[in-house]
Amino acid sequence: MEITEVRISLREHEGRRLKSYATVTFDNSFVVRNIKVIEGNNGLFVAMPARKVKQFCPRCGKKVEMGSKYCSNCGAQIPPPKESVQNRQSIHQDLAHPINQQFRDYLQSKVLDAYHDKKKMASQEEAPQQQSDEQQQVQEESKDEESIPSSE
Ligand SMILES: [Zn+2]
Q: pTM of the full predicted structure?
């Protein structure tokens, strides 16, 4: 399977570990959104879209946050999660992910390459060029329009 397109949307704020979102197209026919580029302790890595796994109260059946000791609805004691689900990987369940190391590496390198390209382009756009200034102005104007509430 080939990765045929990677779209990067930078989300860079100082001190944030989330650096960017990526939308990846496979074989020109399947798209996965919400892939993330995250600054980890050992450098950048790619995280697949995930959902938080919830626990359920054994007495009333309401959802409780993973790791809660008591049910916020009925106060029943929640048994501690099994050791196997105490790490992040099983609290956050991937919704779509590669199932072998080879494809995981391929995906990660494609996404990180696209991320670095996008960053390079973004820093070039910051350079004073009349054309890019105009573009930026247009972008800012349209942003303003969006933020004005339609009170009329
Ligand atoms: Zn309960």
A: 0.64
